[in-house]
Specification:
- The protein is mainly α.
- The protein is elongated, with a radius of gyration of 19 Å.
- The model has no long low-confidence stretch (mean pLDDT 89).
- The protein contains eight helices and no strands.
């Protein structure tokens, strides 16, 4: 498996001969495209069309929290060096030489995409999955992750969504009521003005 991981990495990883525009595009994707996760969460909570969307936001948030916790735990238990830490390939993105498996970026975007596939609409989840795949490619292309780091992020995302779904009957309704109370108190003025949904 490790040999396959290295072979795939070297096949995807950019080289000093790679076009400058491809490196710039990959850098934008690797660093900035992940912002779609918090932007969509905030946007759907404040301006989503109905309360069912807020349930989606809450379930997704819990799934993300679980997935990131699992990701951190796996990284501590099974530390794996990044490619540049062992002198393999070419690095085009500044990064700490910390544990690479599973990828936090991959975990976040794939959990988000899977949540939309499971709890929203398949087409919206598939669009996010395509974005996630692009982010995964860019971070391998720039030399800061292995391909298996991204596969690990996908698998951890499945676990996060599974935990959130199984726990929803216990935490869903009371936590939703609590969040609505806090939201109405903190955003009473914007709600009265009609700037955000009640």
């Amino acid at each position: 498996m490790e040999e396959l991981n290295r072979t795939l990495f070297l096949w995807i990883n950019a080289t000093p001969q790679s076009a400058a525009w491809s490196l710039e595009l990959a850098t934008f994707i690797a660093k900035d495209l992940i912002a779609i996760v918090p932007l969509l969460i905030v946007g759907l909570w404040f301006w989503g069309p109905h309360n069912g969307v807020r349930a989606l936001v809450l379930k997704t948030g819990i799934a993300l929290l679980c997935a990131m916790t699992i990701s951190w735990g796996v990284g501590q238990l099974f530390p794996h060096p990044r490619p540049f830490a062992i002198g393999l390939g070419h690095q085009f993105l500044t990064h700490e030489p910390n544990e690479s498996y599973p990828s936090n970026h991959g975990t976040a975007i794939f959990t988000f995409a899977l949540a939309f596939i499971f709890w929203h609409r398949v087409w919206s989840g598939l669009m996010l999955l395509a974005i996630g795949t692009t982010i995964a490619w860019s971070r391998v292309y720039l030399g800061v992750h292995w391909p298996m780091d991204m596969l690990g992020g996908l698998l951890v995302g499945v676990l996060g969504c599974l935990f959130s779904q199984m726990a929803w009957p216990w935490y869903g309704e009371p936590l939703m009521k609590l969040l609505h109370q806090i939201y109405r108190q903190l955003f009473s003025l914007p709600i009265r003005k009609g700037w955000v949904r009640n």
